[in-house]
Write a structure and sequence with these properties.
This protein has 10 helices and 12 strands. It has 335 residues and is of the alpha/beta class. The protein has a single domain (11-333), classed as Alpha-Beta Barrel (TIM Barrel). The radius of gyration is 19 Å and the shape is globular.
Length: 335
């Protein structure tokens, strides 16, 4: 058998494609990371109930969450990434991967092509890999790796991406892969995704934020987004005040200000962050808890919200009026 052909095409998020000059368009918020998605014909072999790339989805094959990902030649895309990084238009590139048999080789090939041309930091978001696969990514020049948990309890995980939907993923395997990733890439260089609004309680969500931090894994927050054609297309997004509380808890825990154990819950609902009202107001008014969370330089504009709002994750600093609305929502919900 001949040598497998290296990837010649790549999907690029529409916002990234505009920043890179691959296509034209007007952006309300410019992405600070170039977001790529491995290209192959057909869908992912996973069955995540919220994802349009899932093999169980009837949704568009060019979508991931709310974002459209057109296809471009890989060589041209990499040249544009190098140029954009040199001109300080972007600070990172993120390779997101579908689940298929030769995905590690494809990611490695793409990462090597980028790292040969530029010292731009490279992140990868992918399925759980074994130690050999993780080491291959490290050797290819990948700086950070993300393995999305998405769900914060085993029961929800099984229902939305595991055996409950005929998917290949298992809760313990994800945790094992995250642990191995921290051993290979180092604590602080591994991320995961946590999706709010899949049926968990606030206490379960905050507890998982703490669990991730204690493992040396940084949890990036997402709000569940219903996408047409997916199994969860009729499931509602989380209430905005719920998500704001999770963002503040995330800010406090990830910065070591408070722990899950310092917070108070009533029937699973967060009612006290464990800080004074004065300090809480100062943190809220900084706007920092409500920015997109993820790898350094990741702002993911409108990944899980419409530009008209409500904005769950802000791709830029919230305005004064937006902060006022956030403060009303938070303090009103804590009464």
């Amino acid at each position: 058998m001949g040598e497998r052909k290296l990837p010649s095409k790549i999907r690029v998020s529409l916002g990234s494609a505009i920043i890179l000059g691959l296509t034209k368009g007007i952006l309300d918020a410019e992405p600070t990371t170039a977001y790529l998605l491995t290209y192959r014909r057909g869908k992912c072999r996973a069955c995540c109930a919220f994802c349009p790339q899932s093999r169980s989805s009837q949704g568009r094959a060019d979508m991931l969450s709310r974002v459209i990902w057109p296809v471009f030649p890989l060589d041209e895309t990499i040249n544009r990434i190098v140029e954009a990084y040199e001109h300080k238009k972007i600070v990172r590139t993120c390779i997101q991967a579908l689940n298929y048999s030769c995905v590690v080789q494809d990611i490695s090939a793409i990462a090597k092509m980028i790292s040969r041309c530029s010292d731009i930091p490279i992140s990868v978001s992918c399925q759980p890999l074994d130690r050999n696969g993780l080491e291959e990514l490290l050797d290819a020049g990948v700086q950070r790796v993300g393995i999305p948990l998405d769900a914060v309890t085993e029961e929800i995980f099984d229902r939305v991406k595991g055996a409950g939907v005929g998917g290949p993923y298992r809760w313990r395997r994800h945790f094992r892969a995250l642990k191995e990733a921290t051993e290979i890439f180092g604590c602080g260089n591994v991320t995961t995704h946590l999706i709010a609004g899949l049926g968990e309680t606030e206490e379960e969500f905050v507890r998982m934020i703490q669990t991730c931090i204690d493992m040396g894994v940084y949890p990036a927050l997402f709000a569940f987004t219903p996408i047409p054609g997916t199994l969860l297309s009729d499931h509602p997004p989380p209430p905005i005040d719920y998500y704001r509380r999770m963002q503040v808890a995330h800010y406090l825990i990830t910065r070591g200000i408070r722990r899950y154990d310092d917070m108070t819950f009533n029937d699973g609902r967060l009612v006290d962050f464990g800080v004074s009202d004065e300090r809480l107001k100062a943190i809220i008014r900084s706007g920092l808890p409500f920015l997109t969370s993820g790898c350094p330089g990741c702002n993911r504009p409108y990944y899980n919200e419409r530009p008209g709002g409500p904005l769950y994750n802000f791709p830029r600093m919230p305005t004064r009026n937006e902060i006022i609305e956030i403060e009303k929502s938070l303090f009103g919900s804590l009464k």
